[in-house]
């Protein structure tokens, strides 16, 4: 049935949904690639995620309902794949073992106690970050990626700046409670 529709659509020169997907792929390749590379530092992994985005879009193009632009739909697919990438690769924080080392003590430039405190605080912060809800963790990561630019993040997520600020405030407060308790 689907093949006959595509054949009929080509006969009367109506673009098929696959043609629409290809048009969107070509028009959004640069911006989609930048979007993924800004979140995934490994270039090869970013390229893999870009390709996976295209594969998922082609595999699920019949599920596209038209509630948003095709580009927004593709960016949503990419964001979900990025989340999965981080869950898969960073689901458990790496634990830092403090090695016993003979430190040469110098009052001028070295404070062992404060360094140990800083390392422990960092470990607690990383563990607390992993315990946050996915939404809270995502907003923290996205604000870091946008270098603290609330307006840019609001435009990217297509939400008001006030919503970005309130979500970020809730995420910071949850993180603060978990780290300091």
UniProtKB/TrEMBL annotation:
**Molecular function via GO:** DNA binding; sigma factor activity
Q: Which keywords label this protein?
A: DNA-binding, Sigma factor, Transcription, Transcription regulation
Q: What is the lineage of its organism?
A: Bacteria, Pseudomonadati, Pseudomonadota, Gammaproteobacteria, Pseudomonadales
**Similarity section:** Belongs to the sigma-70 factor family. ECF subfamily.
What's the protein here called?
Sigma factor
Q: Which InterPro entries match?
A: RNA_pol_sigma-70-like (IPR039425), RNA_pol_sigma-70_dom (IPR014284), RNA_pol_sigma70_r2 (IPR007627), RNA_pol_sigma70_r4_t2 (IPR013249), RNA_pol_sigma_r2 (IPR013325), RNA_pol_sigma_r3/r4-like (IPR013324), WH-like_DNA-bd_sf (IPR036388)
RNA polymerase sigma factor 70 region 4 type domain residues are 124-175
Q: Name one GO biological process term.
A: DNA-templated transcription initiation
Q: Which residues form the RNA polymerase sigma-70 region domain?
A: 34-89
């Amino acid at each position: 049935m689907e093949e006959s529709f595509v054949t009929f659509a080509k006969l009367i020169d109506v673009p098929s949904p696959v043609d629409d997907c290809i048009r969107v792929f070509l028009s959004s390749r640069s911006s989609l690639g930048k979007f993924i590379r800004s979140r995934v530092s490994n270039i090869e992994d970013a390229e893999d995620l870009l390709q996976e985005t295209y594969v998922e879009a082609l595999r699920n193009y019949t599920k596209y309902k038209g509630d948003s632009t095709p580009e927004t739909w593709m960016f949503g697919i990419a964001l979900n794949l990025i989340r999965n990438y981080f869950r898969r690769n960073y689901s458990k924080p790496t634990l830092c073992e403090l090695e016993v080392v003979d430190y040469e003590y110098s009052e001028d430039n070295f404070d062992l106690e404060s360094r140990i405190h800083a390392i422990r605080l960092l470990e607690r912060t990383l563990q607390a970050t992993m315990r946050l809800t996915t939404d809270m963790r995502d907003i923290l990561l996205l604000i870091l990626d946008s270098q603290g630019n609330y307006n840019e993040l609001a435009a990217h997520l297509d939400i008001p700046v006030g919503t970005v600020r309130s979500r970020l405030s809730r995420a910071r407060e949850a993180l603060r409670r978990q780290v300091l308790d």
